[in-house]
């Protein structure tokens, strides 16, 4: 997305050191070391607001992924 949008290339960039791998499993071509947009937002929140706020978001995100996968496959969530 960045490479295809010249106006995005002009914005300031932030580098995040993430020790964790992405838990986002909906993208088929997910590369190791890359995070999805939600995970990046959570990492930025952790830096600015603390780990507790980010953990709440991550908990919600994990639940969302489970619900989405269950719905997509036609299964009920346990």
TrEMBL record:
Transmembrane segments: none annotated. The keyword Ribonucleoprotein does not apply. Keywords: S-adenosyl-L-methionine, Transferase, tRNA processing. GO terms for molecular function: tRNA-uridine aminocarboxypropyltransferase activity. InterPro entries: DTW. Pfam families: DTW. Its EC number is 2.5.1.25. Residues 1-66 form the DTW domain. It comes from the Bacteria. The keyword tRNA processing applies. GO terms for biological process: tRNA processing. This is tRNA-uridine aminocarboxypropyltransferase. The lineage of its organism: Bacteria, Pseudomonadati, Pseudomonadota, Gammaproteobacteria, Vibrionales. It is an enzyme of class 2 (transferase).
